[in-house]
Amino acid sequence: MNKEILLTEVKYKAVRSSGAGGQNVNKVSSKVILSFDVLHSKGLDEAEKERLKEKIASKLTQEFHLILTCDEERSQLKNKEIVTRRFIKMLQEGLKIEKPRKETKIPKAAKEKRLEAKKTTAQIKENRKKPKL
User: Fold this and answer.
1) CA 4, 9, 13: angle at the middle one, nearest 5?
2) Residue 16: phi, psi to the nearest 5?
3) 113 vs 108, 118, 120, 121, CA distance in Å?
4) What is the pTM (predicted TM-score) of this model?
């Protein structure tokens, strides 16, 4: 993953934000929409593209475009910085290769402890019953 190339391929669009903010919301385009084409990116190799298609599939459109938005701040510049940080973090998380889990046996002491606890609980419940005559 080449971060510099990826950031040149990103397209930003500013639109009017919704919600509270008074006249500022009606006048200023502070919401930032980031779009990125995963398939045609030169900053990712083929293996990385495939990994991203699998890992962040729910966040991609049918044409494999990643679209992120941010309207948390009243400043367009701050929203642009936030959405760019989110974009980089999402790609880094999506490209992580997880180690395969090694199956381990349950230790003998743990099994014995569990069985002993069962016996104790059974004994406590047995003592609650009325004695048989």
Assistant:
1) 120
2) -70, 135
3) 9, 9, 11, 12
4) 0.70
